[in-house]
Amino acid sequence: MNQPISWAKTQLNVDKRLIAIYCVVYFLWGLLMNWFGAAVEIAKFTYWWQVITCYILYMVPISLLLRNLPFHMQYAYGLIAMGILEFAGYGLETSYAYPNNLLDQFFGIRNFSLGMALFFALYFPVGNWVVGKIYHSIFKGK
After folding, report:
1. In 52-122, where does DSSP find H-type helix?
2. 49 with 99: CB under 8 angstroms?
């Protein structure tokens, strides 16, 4: 039991500047996606500050845990994490899906949350790549 905990502590023990970049990138990404989802009437958070709880407090630690894994493993584990988040968000009604939105029309209403989880699971490998590029471009020699 100590091995997974020890591994997680190692993954989360990173340069504070890296964490700051994750927080800024994910916060801006979350605001943009929430705005876009509302603008095209797909889905949105009930409250704007949920960007902080979902993108920073939930997704940043998961990204840190997954960051050194291959793309396909980050996506697979990210799919589990996003499936739980999507299920909870719509189940607790802290997220709002617009009726008859584009995804409902294209995939069907029963596949909406699955489609969202499949899409947002890409955040982990893509986010880790983007944050890594930013971090290394700023602090490569330090």
Report:
1. 60-66, 71-91, 102-107, 112-120
2. no
* Domain ranges, residue 34: 14-137
CA distance 68 to 49: 29
Residue 98 per-residue DSSP state: P
- pLDDT tens profile 64-78: 999 999 999 999 999
* Tally of structural domains, the chain: 1
Closest CA to 59 of 33, 37, 39, 96: 33
What are the helix and strand counts (H, E) for the chain?
8, 2
Give the Cα separation of 38 and 36 in Å (integer): 5
